[in-house]
């Protein structure tokens, strides 16, 4: 069955990354990046069809498709072993993002976008009670999904124990943690675990080597999960950049 994505950046990045695109639909009168997409599609022999905008409105379920819609084979998941193989030969210690209980595709897409920008080498999600890779995820990620391997595992607890056995430090984000994220040394091989907004980390807190929090001074009780995860990820990037400059830990 075809996977569908929409939005100019999502479709462009799919073409640029060499994803197997079966067909592209472009709304009549669409300008800007649509011409680049049509040229790239022609070069790679991907059929392009001009349609009325109402057709795309229906296909995208009312989402903001920007006049671009594509049918493509579903993005394949990689295994955990394949993710770990990426660590071999890396100049920088590996950074993985583990998402527990994420069911909102827009939040998923947003954190994927931040993760790819922050240098995460792979994202791990559970097989059950997690949003799959959909067009909404791809659109919200603004193309970042095409460049970030995603692994889907049956048991997050067992997977985290395996990572610990492979030399990873497992850090979870939890509102009640004693230590702020910027007080922790987040360099070295690391798996950052972010829980969904409804249930948080749950029992995974007991598996983590360390829990960190984002200090809050406002009246809101918490941050959106994608926002919270992005904050911690970019501080990890800051710490690793600083360590690279000094040759020392932060």
In short:
By secondary structure, this protein is of the alpha/beta class. Helix content is 34%, strand content 21%. The strands form 2 sheets. Strands 7-6-5-10-8-11-9 form a 7-stranded parallel sheet, sandwiched between helices. Strands 1-4-2-3 form a 4-stranded mixed sheet.
The mean pLDDT is 88
- Indicate the CATH class of the largest domain: Alpha Beta
Distance between the termini: 48 Å
Radius of gyration: 20 Å
Task: Give the SSE string.
Answer: EHEHEHEHEHEHEHEEEEH
CATH superfamily caption of the largest domain = SPOUT methyltransferase, trefoil knot domain
Query: How many distinct folded domains?
Result: 2
Percentage of β-strand residues = 15-25%
CATH architectural grouping of the largest domain: 3-Layer(aba) Sandwich
Taking the sheet with the most strands, its summary is: 7 strands, parallel
Number of DSSP strand runs: 11
Shape: elongated
Q: Estimate percent helicity.
A: 25-40%
CATH overall fold name of the largest domain: Alpha/beta knot
* Structural class by secondary-structure content: alpha/beta
Q: Reading side by side through the largest sheet, how are the strands ordered?
A: 7-6-5-10-8-11-9
Ranges where pLDDT stays below 50 over 5 or more residues in a row are none
Total of DSSP H or I helical runs spanning 4+ residues: 8
């Amino acid at each position: 069955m075809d996977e569908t994505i929409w939005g100019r950046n999502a479709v462009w990045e799919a073409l640029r990354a060499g994803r197997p695109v079966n067909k592209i639909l472009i709304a009549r009168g669409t300008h800007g990046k649509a011409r680049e997409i049509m040229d790239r599609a022609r070069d790679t022999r991907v059929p392009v069809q001009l349609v009325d905008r109402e057709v795309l409105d229906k296909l995208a379920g009312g989402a903001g498709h920007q006049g671009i819609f594509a049918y493509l084979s579903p993005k394949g998941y990689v295994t955990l072993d394949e993710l770990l193989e990426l660590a071999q030969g890396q100049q920088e210690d590996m950074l993985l993002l583990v998402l527990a209980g994420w069911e909102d595709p827009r939040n998923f897409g947003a954190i994927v976008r931040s993760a790819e920008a922050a240098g995460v080498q792979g994202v791990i999600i559970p097989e059950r009670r997690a949003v799959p890779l959909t067009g909404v995820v791809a659109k919200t990620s603004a193309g970042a999904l095409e460049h970030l391997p995603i692994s889907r595992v049956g048991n997050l607890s067992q997977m985290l124990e395996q990572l610990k056995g492979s030399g990873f430090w497992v850090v979870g984000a939890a509102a009640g943690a004693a230590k702020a994220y910027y007080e922790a040394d987040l360099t070295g091989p690391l798996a950052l675990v972010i829980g969904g907004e409804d249930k948080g980390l749950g029992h995974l807190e007991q598996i983590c080597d360390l829990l960190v929090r984002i200090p809050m001074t406002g009246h809101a009780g918490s941050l959106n999960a994608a926002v919270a995860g992005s904050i911690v990820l970019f501080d990890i990037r800051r710490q690793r950049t600083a360590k690279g400059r000094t040759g020392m830990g932060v």
